[in-house]
Amino acid sequence: PQAVRVDPHLADLGDKLRGGDQRVAPARHRRGASVARFADVSGAPRRFAVVGDARDAFTVTRDEVQGSVWLWRDGDAVHALSVTCPHLGYAIELTADQKAFGCPCHASKFSLAGAVESGPSPRGMDPLATRVVGEFVEIEFRRFRTGVSGREEVA
């Protein structure tokens, strides 16, 4: 798992890459960039791109988009859900009325807490661990197998 920090100061680049996603920069690759303060995470879910290094046997590609997460705050608690639909891996979006999440591919619908409400998804959205370090929010980005009812982490 990779700990990442929310960095809204990279939002312009994120907008160009992912059509409005905020950027999430890995803590170990911040290179002095300002990171989001806990106070900057609102009560409404917002989508953030997760950026990190892609490695294979011979090369490292820096600052690759690894995926996305939904983040929101409830009092002092920060919540994170994977954007990846547990059914077939498509990107889950916030509904137009912002009262639920939905997968546009096969019409799975999820509550704002991530519980499956309807559709073919075999489980709810995958929660991700969060922590507040000082005034900053960190998440642990993980991927899970799609198409199965249990949460099975994949590399």
Taking Cα atoms only, what radius of gyration do you get, to the nearest Å?
Answer: 15 Å
Average of the residue pLDDT scores: 78
| Range of strand content | 35-45%
Low-confidence stretches: 6-22, 24-35
Distance between the termini: 9 Å
Query: Largest beta sheet: what is the strand line-up?
Result: 10-5-4-3-2-1-12-11
Order of helices and strands: EHEEEEEEEEEEEEE
Taking the sheet with the most strands, its summary is: 8 strands, mixed
Number of DSSP-assigned strands: 14
Helical proportion?
Answer: under 10%
**How does the overall form come out from the CA principal axes?**
globular
> What structural class should be given to the helix and strand makeup?
mainly beta
Helical segment tally?
1
Structure characterization notes:
The chain has 155 residues and is mainly beta. Helices cover 5% and strands 43% of the residues. It is built from one helix and 14 strands, in the order βαβββββββββββββ. The chain has an eight-stranded mixed beta sheet. Strand 13 (143-144) and strand 14 form a beta hairpin. The longest helix is centred in the first third of the chain and has 8 residues, at 11-18. It is globular. It starts with a strand and ends with a strand. Mean pLDDT is 78; it is low at 6-22 and 24-35.
In brief:
The termini are close together. The chain is 5% helix and 43% strand.
What keywords describe this structure?
155 residues; mainly beta; 4-stranded antiparallel beta sheet; 5% helix; 43% strand
List the helices and strands and how they pair.
Elements: E1 2-6, H1 11-18, E2 22-26, E3 46-55, E4 60-74, E5 77-82, E6 93-94, E7 101-102, E8 109-110, E9 116-118, E10 127-128, E11 130-133, E12 136-141, E13 143-144, E14 153-154
Parallel strand pairs: 2-3
Antiparallel strand pairs: 1-2, 1-12, 3-4, 4-5, 5-10, 6-7, 7-8, 8-9, 11-12, 13-14
